[in-house]
Amino acid sequence: PAGMQGETNVHSELFFPRYHMLGADMAGTIGAVGVWAEAGVFFPEREIIMTTDLSLLYGQPAGTITSDSTLMKKDPYTRFVFGADYTFRNGTYLNAQFMHGFFHERGRGNLNDYLIIAAERSVLHDKWLLRPLAGGVVISDWGEPKNNYALFYTPEITYRGIDNLEVGMGAYLFDGKGENIFAGFRDFNMLSARVKLNF
Predict the structure, then answer these.
(1) Which residue ranges make up each domain of the chain?
(2) How does pLDDT run across 138-158, given as a tens digit for each residue?
(3) Cα 167 to Cα 195: distance, rounded to the nearest angstrom
(4) Number of helical H runs and strand E runs in the chain
């Protein structure tokens, strides 16, 4: 029960849903281009339903007013990724991959599509690593992509001129519409700095 007007106790049960998985992967080259692909079919053990008890908000006995939300159906679902990379003669490395379903997404109908691209190049005797192109596009509903997308751009520059030390600076820039996780960051653009010391 609430201690003050407008307060309520919250009881939340957290768990990791169990499922079985059947997967396959491959990697190889086509000429000088590296290619890879992975796919997994997930078989949830049971349907997961979240029940929210709203009774106390309306001054009723516990359990009399509830709302159920299906978080994950028992239907099997598939996540997959395929991509390619290539190193140009000047040392520029390019990587591109397409993913259906990010690692945190579960359940048929809850998987977004991601196109991720990165390009980087070491300069000045490998003392500096430049990553001017890094980011991607997310589409969460192909029926209405104009209102269900996200763009993210994450450039970075890293100094590696001292043994066992890396110093990096970068940015995380977001835009988009809809409910996907990256669109939710659209008002939270960030600058980053990091130091890595091996000893």
Answers:
(1) 24-41+75-197
(2) 999 899 999 999 999 999 999
(3) 5
(4) 0, 12
